[in-house]
Prior knowledge:
This protein is mainly β. It has one helix spanning 132-143; strands at residues 5-10, 20-24, 29-34, 68-77, 84-90, 104-107, 129-130, 150-154. Strand 2 (20-24) and strand 3 (29-34) form a beta hairpin.
Amino acid sequence: MNTDHCILIDMSLHSGVKRFIVWDFKEQKISNKYLVGHGCGNNTWSSDESKDNPEFSNEDGSHLSALGKYQLGERGRSDWGIHVKYLMHGLEQTNNNALKRFIVFHSWGLMSDEEVYPTGSPEGWGCPTISNNAMKELDPIIQNSEKPLLMWIYNE
Length: 156
């Protein structure tokens, strides 16, 4: 794995605050923070109904995000945002269906660059989604990495 940067997503935080963290191992500090969306489950797609209490699942069709560590994989074309996506390889029992579920890391035009609390970020079908501008900043870091980045989605 990449030993320069990793991505930490703290799902215990309200979705209207920046809970997506890029950690810089060399500087031993946060290099950037962004908003990130999570899965809607049975709620209305693109709503913020679970903004302060999301549910999680590894089940196909649940439309929920799955907790655990992921290895960001191949870069591809997305129908969303700036049309860039990264495959997410789940490394644990809690997220090992990510590829089968088509859970990928991508941007979404509905995501804000700024915190929106007490409103929440729009909820999708389980993919971690960030703003288009955030992806424009992160994409070169991920692309230019010689080793895959770790993304850890947790709820503690």
